[in-house]
Amino acid sequence: MSQANLPETSSSAPASSSTDTHSLYSSIFLAGVYGSNIAHHSSRGGGSAGSPSAAARNCIKPWDRRSDVGVWTESLEAGHLVINIPFGSPVKVSSVLINQGAGQTAPHRLRIYVNRPNGLGLEDVFEGSSPSTSTGTPSSGLPQADFLLREQDQAASSAEERVQEYPLGRFAARFASVNSLHVVLSDAEEPPSRVYYLSFRGTAPKDPPNRNDRLTVQAEDAASNPMGKVRESAGGASAPVRGSSHAADGTGGQAR
């Protein structure tokens, strides 16, 4: 995987407020969230989340629960963590918020795919991987964004301060009308990969149509066949991006 400039943290990231007016959490169709290669046990007490779908939802929390590290989403031993996230209506996504924790289970790479009707499974991830062309359009089979995650700030005094924002500035056109996001976390020093908090910022329609019934059927069908693949033709591509700890507009930053 080629090295690239680091995207910088957005200066518009919410601070200590209990609400985030740009959060897309309420637009996520939570009942339709499911994952691939997800461990059932994902809590401090080692209890089962009940199903891979329930475990996949553990990390998707509202902004006021960003400091909750008592539950998380974790991969199986293969190390790649795949989460499929549908929205109730099309949204525009401007950035990703994540707390992947620190230590050997912290993933170092984040890939995001857009609008895959049949979802994303491990087979799709491995088939679409390329060491020379890391991102592309939705029709390329490659991810639409590829970030090398920043090292967690060990000096952060609280879990709230460990939430980092990755603007999608250079990938904005690919995230202008999003029905679903498909997130892949990987490259932990030692599997499994783990994520404590995952959310998105952007804009959503004020009066979205009710698509929940149709999404429920799609999610059930996709969950029963998480390895189902979307046949796509090759497309344009660009290099991956790293994250940094400086505030800017998301178009690139200091190389690490």
TrEMBL record:
Gene Ontology annotations for the cellular component aspect, listed alphabetically: cytoplasm; nucleus
Region (Disordered): 125-144, 200-256
Pfam families noted in UniProt: PITH
Domain of life assignment: Eukaryota
Segments of skewed composition (Low complexity): 128-141
InterPro entries: Galactose-bd-like_sf, PITH1-like, PITH_dom, PITH_dom_sf
Residue ranges of domain PITH in the record: 13-220
Family to which this protein belongs: Belongs to the PITHD1 family.
Name of the protein this chain belongs to: PITH domain-containing protein
Species whose genome carries this gene: Pseudomicrostroma glucosiphilum
